[in-house]
Amino acid sequence: MKLLPAALLSACCVTGAAHAQEYLPILQYHHVDASTPRSTSVSPEEFKQHMDYLKEAGYQVLDLATALQSIRSDQPLPDKAVAITFDDAYLNIYENGFPILKEHGFPFTVFINTGPIERGHRSFLTWFQMEEMQKSGGVFANHTVSHPYMLRLEEGETVDQWEQRIHQEVSDVESLLLSKLGSTPKMIAYPYGESNEVVRNLIRDQDMVGFGQQSGVVSKDSDFANLPRFPAAGPYAELSSLKVKLRAKPMPLNAIENGGDFANEQPVKMTLTLKEGRYRKHDLNCYVAGQGKASLNWVDDNVVVVEAERAFPVGRGRINCTMPDQSGRHYYWFSNVWIRTASEQRYVTD
Q1: Which of 19, 101, 266, 297 could share a disulfide with 79, CB 3.0–4.6 Å?
Q2: From the CB of residue 342, how many other CB atoms can be counted at a distance below 10 Å?
């Protein structure tokens, strides 16, 4: 069984710290606009409702990079800690989202793809606007230059050439962040959430933190080259859904065996090994995208095999697992994403 790295398995202990937490839910947004594609958008009214709730319910919105460093250093976060992020450098973040964030005094992180910014695309942020946002808690991080499918070869491209191109996609943004804004948090959100071990090792080698698009909560056990976030737009914009995610905890896992990053013509399955402890295991539920509940086969008291009923179609598919804690007020949460490729897409699958 594939074990998580030993350094990631040590428990994050908070001794004598009242009202502190060892984990961080991170919200993911894209557009803040009522006229953009609904799947990646919240309206300005919805976004204000989200931010008003965070303020009224006493959530502590933290700078993402600082909070992650605290988690890795075994430093407790305040109770009800959360972070706010955006993917892509859309102008409507500045026009519709930033005034609300500034009013609430909330820090936030925007992962920017610099290609359209450098070309002066009218739907994207300018460096001048980003400088203004920096003064009110905005941090800007890496989302590559051109927002490519990072695991796909271009026509006629070798794997070595692909690795060099992806390295350039990342390093060029880092250089621009330093030259235009004066700093980089050394964080990247993978376009479409897609990465493999080659890409993740590239990020680790550059001492960066990476984010996918699987849902879940960050803890010291997490893979910091592929961290989860909770989508908060489109079908996930309802306040009731947001409240559940804000109360989520990381699933207490010792090991995960998922068969790798890619799916095929067979139904996916994964083996989860829970840490020792008292859990409501009979209330564990896992849901397969587009299929409903997954089958659960408990191998022993702490090991469960989670299996989809049918193969995924081409694209990205996921299984989300949740389990209530003993209080019933919070859910442990874990999500895994696989990619099923089509031959013409020329994915690097090794």
Answers
A1: 19
A2: 10
